[in-house]
């Protein structure tokens, strides 16, 4: 079973606040991903990383930023939250080219 | 561009078999995946199949791949209430680590 953890699980916060969503994995996977998903809808890739100090933007434009200073940690930051950022954010990781992505439980974010 | 399509809903009776279908457009797909998402949770990997395989079976789950028609299906035998979830199909092309996702099929179980 995959060991990938996201915190917080739920966050309700006011407009204009700075937010950091945490994602950690203990499997030593090089590849990590952030997806944005509205409830019951398809996944949209917003950021990915192929290793330490490597970050790329995904298919869906996002005002968030990410960093990858350590292999196990891939935090996502919103400098100034807005109601349009309300969504579920899913983090995933994968090992090599033949391995599937494993997901955390997600952070459900609500911006008031 | 690349596309993965799924029906949005499937309704089956408890105890029957469920068959969830997925079509994709890119013939260079290497791996195809099925994930399950329960309400408010992340995605759980159910099974995956390499593109040179036609079928894979794992307990109640059977995956069938028709490469000619670019069609993938997931059969769940003896469907239970615990199978109620959204099922996502995804494909990976070549050595690209990113996945192309379907919109998900919501499986509804009738008593």
What does the radius of gyration of chain B come to? 13 Å
* Poorly predicted regions of chain B: none
Radius of gyration from the alpha-carbon trace of chain A, in angstroms? 13 Å
Give me the secondary-structure category of chain A: mainly beta
User: Tell me about the biggest sheet of chain B?
Assistant: 6 strands, mixed
**N-C termini distance of chain B:** 40 Å
Distance between the termini of chain A: 36 Å
Helix content of chain B: under 10%
Round the mean pLDDT of chain B to the nearest integer and report it. Answer: 91
Question: Care to describe what's here?
Answer:
The complex is a heterodimer of chains A (about 110) and B (about 110). Chain A is mostly beta strands and about 110 residues long. Chain A has no helices and 11 strands. Chain A has strands spanning about 5, 10-15, 20-25, 30-35, 45-50, 55, 65, 75-80, 85-95, 100-105, 105-110. In chain A, the strands form 2 sheets. In chain A, strands 2, 4, 5, 6, 9, 10 and 11 form a 7-stranded mixed sheet that branches. The model of chain A has no long low-confidence stretch (mean pLDDT about 90). Chain B is an all-beta fold and about 110 residues long. Helix content of chain B is about 0%, strand content about 60%. Chain B is built from no helices and 11 strands. In chain B, the strands form 2 sheets. In chain B, strands 2, 4, 5, 9, 10 and 11 form a 6-stranded mixed sheet that branches. Chain B has a 5-stranded antiparallel sheet with strand order 1-3-8-7-6, with no helix packed on it. In chain B, strand 6 and strand 7 (about 60-65) form a beta hairpin. Chain B is globular, with a radius of gyration of 13 Å. The mean pLDDT of chain B is about 90. Classes of the chains: A mainly beta (about 110), B mainly beta (about 110). Chains A and B meet through strand 5, strand 9 and strand 10 of A and strand 4 and strand 5 of B.
């Amino acid at each position: 079973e995959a060991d990938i953890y996201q915190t917080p699980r739920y966050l309700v916060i006011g407009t204009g606040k700075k937010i950091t969503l945490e994602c950690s994995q203990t499997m030593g996977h090089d590849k990590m991903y952030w997806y944005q998903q509205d409830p019951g809808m398809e996944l949209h890739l917003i950021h990915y990383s192929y290793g330490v100090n490597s970050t790329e933007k995904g298919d869906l434009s996002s005002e968030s930023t990410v960093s990858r200073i350590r292999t196990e940690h891939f935090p996502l930051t919103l400098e100034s939250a807005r109601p349009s950022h309300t969504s579920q954010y899913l983090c995933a990781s994968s090992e090599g080219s033949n391995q599937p992505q494993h997901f955390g439980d997600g952070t459900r974010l609500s911006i008031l | 561009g690349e596309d993965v399509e799924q029906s949005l809903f499937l309704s089956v009776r408890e105890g029957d078999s469920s068959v969830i279908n997925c079509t994709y457009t890119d013939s260079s797909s290497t791996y195809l995946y099925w994930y399950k998402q329960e309400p408010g949770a992340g995605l759980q990997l159910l099974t995956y199949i390499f593109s040179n395989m036609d079928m894979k079976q794992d307990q109640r789950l059977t995956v069938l791949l028709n490469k000619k028609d670019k069609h993938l299906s997931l059969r769940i035998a003896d469907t239970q209430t615990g199978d109620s979830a959204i099922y996502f199909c995804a494909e990976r092309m070549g050595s690209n680590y990113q996945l192309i996702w379907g919109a998900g099929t919501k499986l509804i179980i009738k008593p």
